[in-house]
Amino acid sequence: MQVESAVLTAQPDAGAVVESLEQIYQRVFLRLRPRTAIPDIRVEFRRYANANAQIHLESGTLRLRLADTLEGAPANVMEALAEILLAKLFRRPVPADSNDRYRRYLNRRDVRRSLDLVRQIRGRKRVEGPRGIRYDLDQIFEDLNFRYFHGLMARPILGWSPFASRTLLGHYDPSHNAIVLSRILDRIDTPRLAVEYVLFHEMLHLRFPAEHTGARRRVHTRDFKNAERQFEGFGEAQKLLRSL
């Protein structure tokens, strides 16, 4: 049995011929595989916490599981998603215009607001308390807040990650207003400067939110980078993290 899969973590115009999602995927499938019989196509919407989309081809059936947050997307956006998913499924280059169209839709202000709300309601944030074995994130936050933000930054949820990740040392989740640092930093041999720098970096995400322009999403803006360089011991902290 052959199994192929790929994972990506409509309001029609007046007078237009309305296609079903199955018909959209049939049409895109034929463009990519013109000499291949069209499989049976099954589309299912699920209550995901994000705009997730999954596609699987198994035993002659193409199964799609799409987030219900995409259910109201325009037909041209759903076609762009079909081109992205099927290109990934068959290991073809993703069409740049399709990727751009889909990203522009996700970056629309109303769509971002809706997705943030869904993540807040449905998503579960796995985070442990701010007091670690060596470092207390609440105490470090207040110190950095006083030194760099005049004590004016409201404290978000702070905590250590359940697992000691080496690849993701920290992140800010705007949906849950939470800063999470990797537990790998909460060790006896980790210098405080390294912990302060990672936390300061995530605090800057509160001060300088991501900018959305068309299909682009800029997380580290020019203002963000300029502010980050004001961290006392910036160069030394970066060297410490590389050594860790």
Number of helices: 8
**Structural class label:** alpha/beta
Helix fraction bin: 25-40%
**CATH architecture level-2 label of the largest domain:** 2-Layer Sandwich
User: What is the CA-CA span between the terminal residues?
Assistant: 45 Å
Going across the major beta sheet, what is the strand order? 1-3-4-2
Share of residues in strands? 15-25%
Number of domains: 2
**CATH C-level label of the largest domain:** Alpha Beta
Average the pLDDT over all residues and give the rounded result.
Answer: 87
Write the element-wise H/E pattern from the N-terminal end onward: EHEEEHHHHEEEHEEHH
Shape: elongated
Return Rg in Å.
22 Å
Largest sheet geometry: 4 strands, mixed
Relevant terms:
single chain; Zincin-like; four-stranded mixed β-sheet; alpha/beta; elongated; 244 residues; 9 strands
What this model shows, in words?
With 244 residues, this protein is of the alpha/beta class. It folds into two domains: 3-122, Zincin-like; 137-243, Metalloproteases ("zincins"), catalytic domain (Zincin-like, 2-Layer Sandwich), CATH 3.30.2010. The protein is 40% helix and 18% strand. The chain has eight helices and nine strands. A four-stranded mixed beta sheet has the order 1-3-4-2, with helices on one face. Helix 5 (137-148) packs across helix 6. Mean pLDDT is 87; it is low at 9-16.
